């Protein structure tokens, strides 16, 4: 066997190990109380566009640092086309601004946030195994994932760059497999199962007042300004939209629009409503998704994250409603 063949076999083995390890970490993320970010398994778009070794490193670093892998991949795409770009500074030297490596670190930033990602005892800005987790560490230090726009802006001080990265991250995540969040079992089938898995995909995502659109987390307003995430009804609306049912925007509108379900007859995927802060029995101020007997998926309040949480003993429980396809 030639040295070239041996080297190729070793590379393929390394890629497989990285993929298995990273996806194993993804499957373990977001369970229990939902403190970690539940990372969805990369779908067809990411697998076609991103080299396997890079994709595994994005997922691994995202899981370790609580940063969506899609954002890390979008930055890698913008900075170096995942290490494939023809520009200077990607594999050696620096670019015209002095940045180096596939994630394009300035020297001072690299010294402050460098990571020995592969444990080889070296901090190599040109090695994606070191550069990608360093990028995740840098984003986290600047407020991600709660303040994602701010963190990306710190990476490159340009509004157009922030928009470009978030747009590319959304493209990478659009066909991602939310069933990777099956660390939390889904006792449902059909549309309800789709909605629950869609919500579970975002465990650990910050609460953002006014945040959450039909395609995923978004920046809120008021006390949610600058925070990319979901509020309670934004999460339920997003989840059920993935199942083909579009709900009104607010918890009060959802309560009025949907058929109510008697207590004891609620099923996984139903919405569970509470008076919440400032709400009433007839205009509930909080809503979650029934997951199983006594637990719901909810975006609780400012300062907390999307989680799985008990609801049976809440004194402000208003009732249940069932989204249905028209």
Describe the structure in your own words.
By secondary structure, the protein is α+β, with helices and mostly antiparallel strands. It folds into two domains: 3-173, Lysozyme (Orthogonal Bundle); 184-321, endopeptidase domain like (from Nostoc punctiforme) (endopeptidase fold (from Nostoc punctiforme), Alpha-Beta Complex), CATH 3.90.1720. The protein has helices at residues 3-28, 44-49, 52-65, 69-80, 107-113, 128-141, 148-155, 159-173, 190-200, 232-242, 251-257; strands at residues 218-219, 228-229, 260-261, 271-274, 286-292, 295-298, 307-310, 317-321. The strands form two sheets. It has a six-stranded antiparallel beta sheet with strand order 3-8-4-5-6-7. β1 (218-219) and β2 (228-229) form a beta hairpin. It is elongated. It starts with a helix and ends in a 5-residue tail after the last strand. 46% of the residues are buried. The model is unreliable at 1-35 (pLDDT under 50).
Count of folded domains: 2
**What is the structural class?**
alpha+beta
Rounded average pLDDT:
86
Provide a count of the helices.
Answer: 11
End-to-end Cα distance: 63 Å
Rg, alpha carbons: 21 Å
Summarize the entry for a quick read.
With 326 residues, the chain is α+β, with helices and mostly antiparallel strands. It is 40% helix and 9% strand. It has two domains: 3-173, Lysozyme; 184-321, endopeptidase fold (from Nostoc punctiforme) (Alpha-Beta Complex), CATH 3.90.1720.10.
